[in-house]
Design brief:
Helix content is 32%, strand content 0%. The chain is mostly helical. It has a domain of 80 residues. It starts with a helix and ends in a 28-residue tail after the last helix.
């Protein structure tokens, strides 16, 4: 059973969220990784949190990688995810957890992540 402090804390949190949510607007199609990482970041935590992601071919690897992989460039989130309004609804959250991996398969055309199995890996 929740004590008096827990009830007050929960009420305060609800009020703060209600006030904060009035400042939020629906996500725009021009959202960037920087916008997404305000709530879903930092990027390293996102990579770690999705380390057990299972790809359609059965491989397990985080889909959140730098692109190209030897850089520090974060791919635009909208390549794989739909932008969602704030706060997100339950259906928005379900859609986020089902990304479209086709962006990765533009380069990983064999739909696997074993590099160099079909051609030499580009040096650039």
């Amino acid at each position: 059973m929740m004590g008096h402090r827990g009830t007050l804390a929960r009420a305060g949190l609800a009020i703060a969220f209600a006030l904060f949510s009035t400042l939020l607007v629906p996500a725009q199609t021009g959202s960037s990784a920087e916008d997404c990482l305000v709530c879903h970041g930092p990027f390293d935590r996102l990579v770690a949190a999705t380390a057990d992601y299972k790809w359609p071919g059965g491989e397990v690897q985080s889909p959140h990688r730098y692109v190209p992989h030897d850089s520090t460039t974060i791919a635009d989130c909208l390549f794989c995810h739909e932008a969602h309004p704030l706060p997100p609804s339950a259906s928005d959250i379900a859609a986020i957890s089902k990304p479209k991996p086709e962006y990765c398969f533009e380069c990983h055309h064999t739909r696997t992540f074993a590099c160099g199995t079909c051609h030499p890996v580009p040096s650039d």
